[in-house]
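Task: fold both queries, return tokens.
Query 1:
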Amino acid sequence: MDAGGPVSTHAITAGTLVRTIDSNEIVVLDVWAEWCEPCDQFASTFERTALAHRDVFFGKIDAQREGALVQELRVQALPTLLVYRRSAMVFRKAGGLTPTALDELIRQVKDLGGGDGQLQAIVHWEEEPGERMGPPLSWSEWLRRLLLHGKMQLAV
């Protein structure tokens, strides 16, 4: 990030995570490490998207500095993208997204929610260890299917 430019993302630590999630409607987190080449490739997409969506909080968790937090979040691969809406995790994916896919994800997350204040879907993208989910779907198809089923809940 350009030191002279506007701040588009914020460093998140174990001490700031809960407050950040609780005080922002939508929080998008990138769990990364300096040595991680895929993290480096995704970083510019994450920064540009943050600049385009000023109404969404974008944060970065440094896996090297925040190892205990990364373990608590059950992150097993870098980068990992975590998205929270109204303090609930609504999306989790190991690996980066294209700029178009990240923009579309944010649009979909903004559209989540019903009049009762409850989220319509909780999205969990990753398989649990030892679990088989069948052929992979594109993230947009996965999210579309979840949204079509109303209040489908998936464990995170």
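Query 1 returned. Query 2:
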Amino acid sequence: MRSDNGSEFTAIALRDWLQNLNIGTTYIEPGSPWENGYCESFNAHMRDEFLNGEIFDTLTEAEILTRRWVDTYNTIRPHGSLGYRPPAPQAVRASA
């Protein structure tokens, strides 16, 4: 798993869990978000397009709205790097 050096990724409990699953970890250099560009871009879009405009009253509401946003992001929302097409149809074309 490739991630930045945030405490949520470097916590001993997570590192032990990943090790038990035989999942290796690599960490990008501190202050180098371009080394993990896809994830950093997704996180920025999720924050700007979704999280900044929501106040969740319950965990269930957060889960439902997050799933809905991710589904829209992956199947409907146009992406500039794909010629302003959504990524899911692009992935289907690439695998055909």
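Both queries returned. Flag for query 2: The two ends are 28 Å apart (CA to CA).
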